[in-house]
Amino acid sequence: MAKPQFKITNWSTYNKALKQRRSLTIWLSPLFLMMKRVFGFSLRALQRFVDSI
C-alpha cells in the first residue's frame, strides 16, 4: 500500500516547522522553478540571487 501524500497549503508554517526540526529537506516551489527558466541562471547562481533579495 502506498504512503498517503498530502498537499501542503500553508508553506510559511511548513518551512518554519522544517527549520525548527533542523531538517535538510529542500522543497522547490513552482515559482522557484519558473524563476530559473526566466533568468536562465544555473540553480546555484539563482539561489544566491534569491538569497540576496
Describe this structure in words.
This protein is mostly helical and 53 residues long. It is 58% helix and 0% strand. It has helices spanning 11-21, 30-39, 43-52. The longest helix has 11 residues, at 11-21. The protein is extended and about 40 Å long.
> Strand fraction band?
under 5%
Roughly how much helix do the residues carry, as a percent range? 55-70%
Structural class: mainly alpha
Order of helices and strands: HHH
Based on CA atoms alone, the radius of gyration comes out at 14 Å
**Average pLDDT reading:** 74
What is the approximate shape?
Answer: extended
Describe the sheet with the most strands.
none
What is the β-strand count? 0
Regions with pLDDT < 50 over 5+ consecutive residues?
none
What is the first-to-last residue Cα distance?
Answer: 43 Å
Please outline the helices and strands.
Blueprint lengths: L10 H11 L8 H10 L3 H10 L1
Annotation keywords:
mainly alpha, 53 residues
Brief digest:
The protein is mostly helical and 53 residues long.
